[in-house]
């Protein structure tokens, strides 16, 4: 780092952090576009007002004439002090329609956390960042759909609730909301905060009327706000039946990362049942927020989809260094020595926007934490760090993130089927897409690269199979295809397709054969040890492999040619054991580190994040409650790609391979 430039940049950051923020005058407010406006004669004459407000005819006249001139020329009254105060209150009422920060500061009272007192709600720095995202959507008349990834406690839930209440009290009538936490206690805390704000709402803003809330049809967890006839319902993911989901315009789902799947209900089912009641439009809200609780769960999947624009949610993440509490004062004279002592990661933090004071605090916190991954999880600098879920990772997060950059949604999702048409001797393989409007529900084939029928090479494609169980709660089975043509010119293999689901073992084996035949009679590598140790089921599968070997000529055999010549029987499939499992996993670690293959499946990267060394330090597998079928299928696949002869053109008269014609989605 250039020390002098770093010091100059740090001082600029400190000036921005310590800049005046006054929501009453509007100074320092950046959530929406504003312009300084002078209205002569008002108690506060110079105000930084929202641009949306300045287009109002009354505000235009006030700025031009001043308070006294407006009263005399527009209202036709004497400009007494009483009339000026009345006009000022009208102006304030108009302002609270456009200026949430002003409304929050002047109209709400909340508990000052940790200080045992009540205070007006003044937004802190991270809250203003979050508000800017909500206001951008509101002003554009778009649904306010946001997924919020929280870094410790900085008041994200409080802001969400008060923003929803602002809409119910100021903008809309009959505008109902739902607040759903993981447990009922979270909802009760929210209820107490809302009750305090409503009970203390200034009566001058309601024409002297006191706002109250009453149970709706006797339900204590659903209350009606008297001023706007709007309701808010409180519930929890553990007891969702208490939620009233009819006629909802706004929903705040908090700590969704903690929501557990229960018998017959998944978190996404509850979310869908709530969100399904909202007719999206201006001023509707769908807020999903949580601290990160691992990867692969509903919250993480929704976050990833939001960041890659596969859903309508705007992702908002607040890093720890945006929270003013996490900073350690430092003398300017010590800056140079501190910068020289910074390690590579601390320089990375500075590049992200952290001040030297924040990095000094972080350095101390790092010494206190027993594990680095816990520090990343509790004080994340990036969203990727927030989703750290284990301190015993097999695959470094930087390696996985590098692979994730190449992941894209599959152009084709559906199935593959064997079709034998009348009058034709050969079978054909059709790729059948999902029907229009049909959602993927497992047991489906995702394809990134259709089989290439023009460049015909032997063993260009390799197919591997990780065998799971058949029940809905068992491990999944996975079939993965790699295209190796780039290896002929020094390139790397690329994931071409992936089948994933639960299926009977004999159907799984023949499904793999169908896929392998479709991909140019690819080398088919089936992981066999799981079934070989399952007693009768394993014996049955061994019979299936023997049956397949008689009908499919390119099945992987682990018995060497020398052993076969010596009379030993052929043993089909890849046997995963205490020797071969570390071999393929370690090779996959190297492949991720050195970019030895191109990953396309995002779900595979999620499984890589969840793959860990067990407590004994020797065994490896998915974190409890998760799966690693994609990891194992991919590990065997990548290892085989580099330990099997490169693709070659078959030796025959015309230089082409005899193969089944492929009917692709395009030809359909």
How would you describe what is shown here?
- It is a single chain.
- By secondary structure, this protein is α/β, with parallel strands linked by helices.
- It folds into 4 domains: 33-98, no CATH class; 122-318, P-loop containing nucleotide triphosphate hydrolases (Rossmann fold, 3-Layer(aba) Sandwich); 330-389, no CATH class; 412-663, 2-Layer Sandwich (Nucleotidyltransferase, domain 5).
- The protein contains 23 helices and 22 strands.
- The strands form 5 sheets. It has an 8-stranded mixed β-sheet with strand order 7-8-9-6-10-11-5-12, sandwiched between helices. Strands 19-16-17-18-15-13-14-22 form an 8-stranded mixed β-sheet, sandwiched between helices. Strands 1-2 form a two-stranded antiparallel sheet.
- It is elongated and about 115 Å long.
- The two termini are 58 Å apart.
């Amino acid at each position: 780092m250039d020390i002098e430039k770093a010091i100059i940049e740090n001082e600029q950051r400190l000036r921005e952090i310590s800049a005046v923020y006054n929501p009453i005058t509007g100074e320092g407010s950046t959530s929406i576009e504003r312009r300084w406006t002078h209205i002569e004669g008002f108690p506060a004459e110079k105000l930084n007002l929202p641009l949306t407000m300045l287009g109002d005819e009354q505000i235009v006249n006030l700025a031009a004439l001043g308070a006294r001139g407006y009263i005399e020329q527009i209202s036709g009254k004497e400009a007494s002090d009483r009339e000026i105060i009345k006009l000022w209150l009208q102006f304030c009422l108009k302002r609270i329609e456009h200026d949430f920060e002003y409304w929050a500061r002047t109209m709400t009272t909340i508990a000052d956390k940790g200080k045992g007192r009540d205070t007006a709600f003044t937004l802190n720095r991270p809250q203003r960042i979050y508000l800017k995202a909500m206001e951008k959507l509101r002003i554009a008349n778009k649904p306010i759909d946001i997924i919020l990834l929280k870094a410790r406690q900085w008041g994200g839930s409080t802001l969400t609730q008060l923003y929803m209440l602002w809409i119910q009290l100021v903008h809309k009538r009959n505008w109902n909301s739902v607040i759903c936490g993981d447990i009922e206690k979270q909802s009760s805390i929210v209820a107490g905060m809302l009750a305090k704000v409503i009970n203390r709402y200034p009566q001058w803003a309601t024409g002297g009327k006191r706002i109250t809330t009453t149970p709706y049809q006797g339900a204590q967890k659903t209350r009606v706000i008297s001023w706007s006839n709007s309701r808010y319902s409180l519930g929890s993911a553990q007891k969702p039946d208490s939620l009233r989901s009819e006629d909802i315009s706004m929903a705040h789902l908090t700590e969704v990362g903690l929501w557990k799947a229960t018998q017959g209900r998944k978190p996404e089912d509850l979310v869908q049942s709530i969100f399904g009641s909202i007719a999206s439009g201006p001023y509707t809200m769908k807020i999903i927020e949580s601290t990160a609780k691992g990867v692969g769960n509903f919250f993480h999947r929704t976050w990833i989809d939001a960041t890659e624009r596969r859903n309508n949610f705007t992702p908002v993440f607040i890093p720890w260094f945006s929270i003013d509490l996490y900073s350690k004062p430092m003398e300017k004279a010590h800056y140079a020595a501190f910068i020289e002592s910074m390690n590579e990661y601390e320089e990375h933090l500075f590049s992200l926007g952290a001040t030297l004071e924040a990095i000094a605090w972080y350095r101390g916190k790092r010494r206190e934490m027993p594990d680095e991954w816990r520090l990343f999880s509790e004080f994340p600098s990036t969203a990727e760090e927030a989703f750290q879920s284990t301190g015993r990772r097999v695959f470094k997060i930087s390696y996985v993130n590098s692979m994730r950059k190449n992941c894209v949604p599959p152009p084709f999702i559906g199935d593959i089927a064997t079709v034998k048409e009348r009058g034709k001797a050969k079978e054909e393989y059709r790729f059948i897409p999902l029907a229009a409007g049909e959602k993927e529900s497992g047991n489906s084939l995702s394809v990134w690269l259709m089989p290439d029928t023009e460049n015909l090479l032997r063993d260009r494609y390799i197919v591997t199979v990780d065998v799971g169980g058949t029940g809905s709660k068992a491990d999944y089975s996975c079939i993965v295809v790699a295209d190796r043509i780039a290896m002929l010119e020094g390139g790397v293999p690329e994931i071409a397709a992936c089948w994933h689901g639960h299926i009977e073992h004999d159907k799984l084996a023949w499904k793999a054969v169908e896929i392998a035949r479709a991909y140019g009679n690819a080398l088919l590598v089936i992981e066999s040890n799981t079934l070989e140790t399952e007693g009768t089921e394993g014996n049955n599968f061994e019979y299936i492999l023997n049956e397949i070997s008689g009908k499919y000529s390119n099945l992987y055999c682990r018995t060497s040619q020398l052993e076969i010549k010596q009379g030993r029987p052929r043993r089909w499939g890849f046997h995963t054991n205490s020797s071969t499992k570390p071999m393929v996993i370690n090779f996959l670690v190297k492949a991720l580190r050195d970019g030895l293959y191109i990953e396309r499946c995002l779900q595979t990267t999620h499984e890589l994040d969840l793959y860990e060394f067990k407590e004994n330090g020797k065994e490896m597998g998915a974190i409890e409650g998760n799966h690693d079928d994609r990891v194992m299928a991919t590990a065997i696949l990548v290892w085989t790609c580099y330990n099997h002869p490169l693709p070659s053109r078959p030796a025959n008269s015309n230089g082409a391979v005899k193969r089944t014609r492929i009917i692709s989605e395009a030809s359909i």
